[in-house]
Design a protein that fits this description.
single chain; about 200 residues; mainly beta; eight-stranded antiparallel beta barrel; two-stranded antiparallel sheet
Length: about 200
């Protein structure tokens, strides 16, 4: 099984015995090696609305070793906003957009591109957008969070431009863990992240 180093609040830091317990404190030093082969559970994704403390740590790029933290909020999309456009008038049948949101994290501190206004809570052009790709059976195949309004315009397919994304490898109702990446035509910064419910 492939393992990746991702941020996870450890029991010694939280004073608890489980990752994902509610806390306002998240430390990038409290990390574990997590098995990335675990499936993304759609029942857990369905419970993610709310506020999370987001910590991003750079392991590649000019800000290697730096950490940024802030708050990211997820709000459930209404049904008509859960679809993602493919071309004019058509939608991608295997992709849903369960949440939109916003974040006050300074991604430039870890070398990521700040794309527009991450603090926007406009559902038509939010500062954070969660995109879920499903298998034909309806199970989650991948889960990403796109940061910045420039890449989150409703019903606009982008074919170029910059990106800053959180690639979720593990999810529970209180925790998201994974890797992040940022760049334009090529990746220029990357690292790992965690988001713990506040």
């Amino acid at each position: 099984m492939k393992s990746i180093r991702v941020a996870c609040a450890a029991a010694v830091f939280l004073g608890t015995g489980a990752c994902g317990n509610r806390t306002r404190q998240v430390s990038p030093e409290d990390c574990v090696t997590f098995d990335a082969g675990a499936a993304l559970r759609t029942d857990e994704i369905a419970r993610l609305a709310g506020d999370f403390t987001l910590v991003m740590t750079a392991t590649g790029g000019e800000q290697n070793g730096n950490t940024a933290s802030g708050v990211i909020t997820f709000r459930a999309n209404i049904d008509e906003m859960r679809m993602m456009a493919e071309t004019a008038g058509t939608f991608r049948s295997n992709v849903v957009v369960p949440y939109y949101g916003m974040s006050d994290i300074d991604v430039s501190a870890v070398g990521a591109l700040p794309l527009g206004h991450a603090e926007s809570d406009d559902p038509g052009q939010p500062g954070a957008l969660m995109v879920q790709a499903n298998t034909p059976a309806g199970d989650a195949r991948s889960l990403v969070v796109r940061l910045g309004t420039d890449g989150n315009v409703r019903n606009v397919m982008r074919f170029d431009g910059g990106y800053t994304v959180l690639r979720v490898r593990y999810v529970s109702a209180d925790t998201l863990l994974g890797e992040w990446a940022s760049g334009t035509m090529t990746e220029t910064a990357s690292g790992y992240f965690c988001a713990i419910r506040r």
